[in-house]
Structure formats: structure tokens, C-alpha cells
């Protein structure tokens, strides 16, 4: 690939950027110890619309992977939640083996995909990126309230638990904690959201981000 030359074709290829969605996959790869080669897709320069990237993800969103050792041969995969599930199943790690706990874990991944990601993202858009374009307070209030509601769900879930599934770190944690962090470092919304009102969530966030492998994964394909 001319734009993203591949030096190690035997490794899994990651096309990403250090946004919360991108961080999920690099964190999982680091936690799982899967050899991979990372390629930065600069969405600020519209590289996600490059035909070479669209051949991997026709929806022009990061992250995406190409696994030369996929089932039946080379596998191209997009959507961060699908990638997390694929990597967990491929390795037999980061996903409970008990059938009922397994589906419960997947449920919390979907909770992030359908709720936390979209709602936190909309809050960030209107609070930070569209602050000079939309003077109506309605969208900020709406998405701030929904973000707080979702944080409240997490606060209750994590009560008495080290991680979302209990004592074991899983793809549910990996899917979710980068978005909690982004409320602060990405959107400068710590005070606006009132993250101090969710001490259990914030303690869990610190546990997740301070894991050595997860810390490394957070910085893969970092912004220039």
C-alpha cells in the first residue's frame, strides 16, 4: 500500500488513530500480545477517504484491521466492537469462558457501542467543536444529561467490582474506559459533565488506564 507501506506482512495490520474508538483495538492488541503493525490514518487530512483505506473499510471510519492469519486466510475487519470480539475469540482471552458471563460481557460491549460512544461523542461535538456554531444550549444540555445518565449506569455496575465483569479485565472495559477519559482530555468536559460525581467510575478508569499494556495501547497512532 503506497500510503501505508507494510514492512511486516506476516503481522496483523492496524489502521487507526488514537481516538477512543481507535484506542480500543490497540489496547486489546497490546493486552493480548498479538504482533501487529500500526498505520496512522490522519482523519484531519481526510485520509479515511483514500481508496486504499476504503478497500478495507467502505464506511471510511477508523479503526480497521487486516489479519493475514484470519479464518480461511486474510481477513479485513472494521467496527471497533466487532474487532474486539474477533480478537478475544481468536485468542481465547479478555472474554469470559462461561457462556452466561460471555454473553453478559458482550452485552456491556454493545452498551458502549450503542450508548456511551455515540452520546459522549455528541456531547463533545456540541460542547467543544460546535461551540461557536450553535448558540442554542439545548444540544449540550441534552447530551450532557444523557452522558451523566450513562455514567450513572456504570457507577452502579462497578459498585463492589474491580472491573465491569468483576475481577477480570475484559473487552467490556477496553471498549469503555477510553471514552470516559476522552470526556476530559478530548472534550475538556471534566467539570461540565461533573466526573467527580462518579467516584467509582473514575477509580475504575484509573485502574484500566494504568495497566502497562493498556497505557501503551492508548498511545498507538497518536495525533501528531
TrEMBL record:
Keyword annotations: Transferase
PROSITE patterns, per the entry: GST_CTER, GST_NTER
Pfam families: GST_C (PF00043), GST_N_2 (PF13409)
Source organism superkingdom: Bacteria
Boundaries of every GST N-terminal domain copy: 9-95
Molecular functions per Gene Ontology: transferase activity
Protein name in UniProt: Glutathione S-transferase
PANTHER family: GLUTATHIONE S-TRANSFERASE GSTA, GLUTATHIONE S-TRANSFERASE-RELATED
Lineage summary: Bacteria, Pseudomonadati, Pseudomonadota, Gammaproteobacteria, Enterobacterales
Organism: Gallaecimonas pentaromativorans
GST C-terminal domain sequence ranges: 98-224
